[in-house]
Request: fold
Amino acid sequence: VANSLEEIGSRFSVESLNWPEAFPYRPLTIITAAHSGSHLYLDFFVRCNYLRAVNYTDNSPVSEDSCVEFYVSTGNSAESYHAFEFNCVGTINASACTARKECTPLQADQLSLIRRYASVGTRPFEEVEGSFIWNVVVAIPLNMIGVNYNAGHPSTPPHPISTALTASAKSFLTKTAACSGTIACTGQPKALTIPTH
Reply:
């Protein structure tokens, strides 16, 4: 999957810090995204100076570890969204939210449908300092985030889904927190176009 993402995915880097005064450290973070019609594939590539993964149970507080986060909204309201957090060993913390503080964790059977590959393996470890490169590749079912892909008839005009996949308002935006800093993407990736009815 990672090789296919390299070839056909939309790639963008995370360039801005949300809270530079509190978290001045910004690891190099690059995200590659694509879809297969049934899944949204995300490859998070991180180069950092600290690495930690003590949380190894799904829906545990992986944001305390070296992690990446992805927020997506497919409805008409930016208030309703899904939040996905993955630490560097692939442990996930995911919720469906109706407002910023009103989130319901996804159940174990839902989380099991999200495929994950972590380049550093799956065993937890305490924080280490050095020079690290790691990535997490995930496959999130599109129907889990409210996208029902249907190729339709060839004459059906495609609708760009990049305008519907939003993190806070009107753009397809990915937010990552990696190596204990919180970072947000400033630009838009190339549009992912999914023909729908």
